[in-house]
Known about the structure:
- This protein has a single domain, classed as Alpha-ketoglutarate-dependent dioxygenase AlkB-like (Jelly Rolls, Sandwich), CATH 2.60.120.
- The protein is built from four helices and twelve strands, in the order βαβαβαβββββαββββ.
- The strands form two sheets. Strands 1, 2, 3, 4, 5, 6, 7, 8, 9 and 12 form a ten-stranded antiparallel sheet that branches. The protein has a two-stranded antiparallel sheet with strand order 10-11.
- The two termini are about 30 Å apart.
- The chain has about 210 residues and is α+β, with helices and mostly antiparallel strands.
- The structure holds 2-oxoglutaric acid (AKG).
- 2-oxoglutaric acid (AKG) binds next to strand 4, strand 9 and strand 12.
- The site of 2-oxoglutaric acid has 9 residues, from strand 4, strand 9 and strand 12.
Amino acid sequence: MLREAFPLIRASSPALLERLCRGRGLELWPQFISGPEEEALLRDVEPGLYRKHYQRDHWDQAIHGYREMEKSRWSVQSESILQRLRDVAFPPGVPQLSMVHVLDLEKTGFIKAHVDSVKFCGDTIAGLCLLSGCVMRLLSEDNDVDQVDLLLQQHTAYILRGEARYRFSHQVLPDEESFFGGEKVPRERRISIICRNLPHEPGSELD
Ligand SMILES: O=C(O)CCC(=O)C(=O)O
């Protein structure tokens, strides 16, 4: 993780920050992609997204104001960007989901606190942030104290592993709550592109 990432993480205590970042449980890579790389990724995902409608009606769902798809075929340029993300996120040989998750949140969209199901995702979540910044909040599943806010700027890559993935929920704040250290982080339409590894085999310590 780059040193300049630290001002982009606000934890409820220095000890928590140290614990989550040690062992690379939490990583931010600001400016992981360039503007032209973002454009290449958008060229790949926009046609598929435009065919879908934003989902807004189901208030019991974790995500509001979104459309999404799973994508396995990418241009050569996008494939090399995704490979760069996979190379920093996953050790060699770790089995990964071949389908990449593309999530398009409209300006008023948001993601409620949730922990990704262990049935569908292994120990690592690696995302790229396109079009807009946002605040991602991690909340401890074990107490009411431990909390981390991540300033996910446009072009940032983030990685949640281990404790940050399993013992903390994550959420993307709605525009009206989108503040980082008291500063407004305006929300626009945001697309995230997320790579995950395969869930653990039955019989592993997580079952
Ligand atoms: O949009 C993001 O970066 C996070 C998406 C998310 O929380 C999820 O797909 O579980």
